Amino acid sequence: MKLELIQPFINAADAVLAQTLACQTRVSTVTMEQEVYRRRGVAAIVTMMGDIEGRIVFDLEPATAARVASALAGSDLPQDDGMIHDTVCELANQVIGNAIASLNDQGFRFRVQPPEVHTAEHGIGNSEDIEALVMCFDTPSGSVFMNIALRFPKCDA
Amino acid sequence: MEQFAPLLRSKDKQPIRYLVVDDSIFARKNLARMIESFGGRVAGEAGDGCTAITEYSRTLPDVVLMDIIMPQMEGIEAAERIVRMHPQARVIMVSSVGHQENIVTALQKGARHFVQKPVKPEILYDVVKYVMGEDATTVVEAATGAAR
User: Fold this and answer.
1) Domain total for chain B?
2) Could you report the per-residue pLDDT of B18-65, keeping only the tens digit for each?
3) I need a labelling partner for B86 at 20 to 30 A (CA). Which of A54, A65, B78, B124 fits?
4) Residue A35 clears pLDDT 80, i.e. is over it
5) pLDDT above 90 coverage of chain A, percent
6) Inter-chain contact A105–B71, Cβ cutoff 8 Å?
7) pLDDT at residue A126 is higher than 70
8) Cβ(B131)–Cβ(B90) below 8 Å
9) Cross-chain Cβ contact A93/B70 below 8 Å
10) DSSP of B95-126, one letter per residue?
11) Is A89–B99 a contact, with Cβ atoms under 8 angstroms apart?
C-alpha cells in the first residue's frame, strides 16, 4: 500500500481526534496485517470504490468507545447505549471524509458509502492482494485503532 | 460550550430557526448544542434528504444545516430540491467531505455556504451570520438600535 494513500488518513485522524476530544494524540503502533481483521470493540466500516478501492475500519475498545461518546455527549453513557455506535460512526465519517477530501484534491475520484457499524464476531477479510495497515492512536480516553486496506484497482489490473 | 452573542431575526427579534439534517444522531445533537449557544432554536431535524424536504416545507426554517453523505437521498440533491421549491432557502452544507468538487457542486445547486466537519462553533456562527446577512442581528446590535 502506498504512503500517498495512507498519509491523508493519518493526518485526518490526528486532526479530528485532537479537535473533537480536545487533546493531544499520538500514533503508538503501526503494523501490517494480512490476516482477517477482528474488531476490538465498537467498529465502524467505510467502503470506497473508484480510483482507489478498499475499506477502512475505525475501531475502539468498548470502554474507550463509552468514554469517548460520554465525553462528547457531556454525560455518562452506559456501554450498551446506541449513541456510542452512532458516535464512533460519526468520528469515522469525519476522519475518512477529511482524508478523502485531501485525496480528491490530489485528483483521485471515488465514492464512499456512509459508515456502517461492524458487529460481526468473525473478522473482516482482506482481498488476497490487499494488505491492511493497522494504526493505533493513543488518546486520553484510550486507544483508537484504524485499519486501512486500500489499493489502486486500475494500476493493479 | 462557549456562548455567543445571540443571533436573532432582524424582522421580529426572535431566535433564528434551524433545520438540522444529518444521518448521525450524535452530529445532530452536537449541532443543536451549537445552535443553542448561538441563541437559536431547532425547528426540525431529519436523518436523510427525503425527510429534509418534507421537514423544510413543514417548518419553513431560516437556516438549513445539511450533511452531504446520507442514506436514501444525499444532501446536495436535497438542497437542490429545497432551493427549487423555496428559492429563498438558506442552506449551509455541513460535511466532512470537503473537497473542492463537492463544494462547487453544492454551491451551484443553491447552497449558500459550506462548513467542514468537525465543526468549529465560531466558524459556524460566522457563516450563519454571513448567510443571514441583514436578516439577522445580534442582541448587542438590537439593544443599541432600540436605544437610538
Assistant:
1) 1
2) 999 999 999 999 999 999 999 999 999 999 999 999 999 999 999 999
3) B124
4) no
5) 36
6) no
7) no
8) yes
9) no
10) ES---HHHHHHHHHTT--EEEESSPPHHHHHH
11) no
Q: Is residue B96 domain-resident?
A: yes
Min Cα distance B125 → chain A (Å) is: 17
The DSSP output letter for B15 is: B
Nearest CA in chain A to B120: A19
The answer as to whether B91 is a domain residue is: yes
Contacts of B143 (CB under 8 A, 6+ apart): none
Distance CA A116, CA A18 (A): 23
Q: Give the CATH number, domain containing residue B75.
A: 3.40.50.2300
Host domain of residue B80: 7-143
For residue B94 the three cell numbers come to: 455541513
Q: Do A20 and B26 touch (CB under 8 A)?
A: no
A146, A49 contact by CB (below 8 A) = no
Q: Which chain A residues are within 8 Å of B23, Cβ to Cβ?
A: 114
Q: Domains of chain A, with CATH numbers?
A: 3-156 (3.40.1550.10)
ipTM for this prediction: 0.78
Residues B44 and B19: their CA atoms lie apart, in Å, by 5
Domain membership flag for residue B148: no
Q: Which residues of B touch A (CB under 8 A)?
A: 23-27, 29-30, 33, 69-71, 95-102, 116-118, 120
- Among B40, B64, B69, B68, residue whose Cα is nearest residue B53: B64
